[in-house]
Amino acid sequence: MITYNGSDLILAPIAGYSDAGMRTLCFRYGAGLCYTEMVSAKGLFYGNENTASLLHTDPEEKFTGVQLFGSEPDIFAEVVRYDQINKFPLIDINMGCPVKKITSNGEGSSLMRSPELIEKIVRAVKQNSQKTVTVKMRLGIDGLNNATECALAAQEGGADMITVHGRTKEQLYAGKADYDAIARVKERLTVPTCGNGDVTDRESYLKMKETGVDYVMIARGAMGRPYVFSAVKENDYDFNVKEAVLFHIGRLTTFLPENTVMNVMKKQIACYVYGMRGSKAIKEKAFAAKTLKELTSVFD
Ligand SMILES: Cc1cc2nc3c(=O)[nH]c(=O)nc-3n(C[C@H](O)[C@H](O)[C@H](O)COP(=O)(O)O)c2cc1C
Fold this sequence. Notes:
The protein has helices at residues 20-28, 41-45, 51-54, 73-79, 83-86, 100-103, 115-127, 147-157, 179-188, 202-209, 228-231, 241-253, 258-272, 279-288, 292-297, and strands spanning 9-11, 33-40, 64-69, 90-95, 132-137, 161-165, 193-196, 215-218. Helix 4 (73-79) runs parallel beside helix 7, helix 8 (147-157) runs parallel beside helix 9 and helix 12 (241-253) runs antiparallel to helix 13. The protein is globular, with a radius of gyration of 19 Å. The mean pLDDT is 96. Strand 6 (161-165), helix 9 (179-188) and strand 7 (193-196) form a beta-alpha-beta unit. It is α/β, with parallel strands linked by helices. The protein has an 8-stranded parallel beta barrel, surrounded by 5 helices. It has 2 domains: 9-231, Alpha-Beta Barrel (TIM Barrel), CATH 3.20.20.70; 241-297, no CATH class. It starts with 8 loop residues before the first strand and ends with a helix.
């Protein structure tokens, strides 16, 4: 079985959040593998410049996977040969995004309508890349719980690991992730499986492990809380919001213009201070900041 730095913990792809700064912090706290935000295969193919910053990695990052979304096997086959993708040791294919802008193009969770297409896409990536290939999906689409069928198709195409988020496309983020359904998918697969959904602490981590999954992926539980990877293992850790925010800003300024850093960090700061005493005032000041200097001074 593939192991990622000896850890079974994975930071999920999180559009708008799992940037190089957040990933570096998550690695420091014990994540074994971190994913980039989702990147459009078509965007890469047509040379969209917006993808460049999404593909930036920090020198300190240990094992980062790039997540691609798309629907055309030929485009996947082409872009996975690009140097910007080849620098990653692992490629993930998004088959879970429920956002209309994505699904209306037949991408993200829409792929779960066609296990045949899933197999073709995974095979196209495997045949054109030497890298580990993973797939991330939901429990089903259109009222069907067809994750097992889709996961078997991905496995047939050559996927090295399959992540299942325990909700259907229609559920979006409502209700609780269904761990029993994840266990049923896991049981049918021979490749390693990763469970995802609602893991935020040791208790939920252990519950997810009871499903038999090999890996556990965390998204919302890591936003503003990179220490969650230590917390679930009951490892000692220090966490200081000010230090984390300043570190995060520092990393982003190495590759993003000031304005973009400010926009990204305002959202990240809302997560870092969530639940803290005085968080409302800090957020207001942060959101009012007009320069990076003003933004960092909020934490003085
Ligand atoms: C703001 C936000 C952005 C997300 N972006 C992505 C993405 O780019 N790719 C993806 O596969 N899933 C994405 N997801 C889904 C998460 O990776 C994860 O599957 C979901 O949040 C459930 O896990 P959790 O309960 O640990 O948050 C996103 C979720 C959130 C909340």
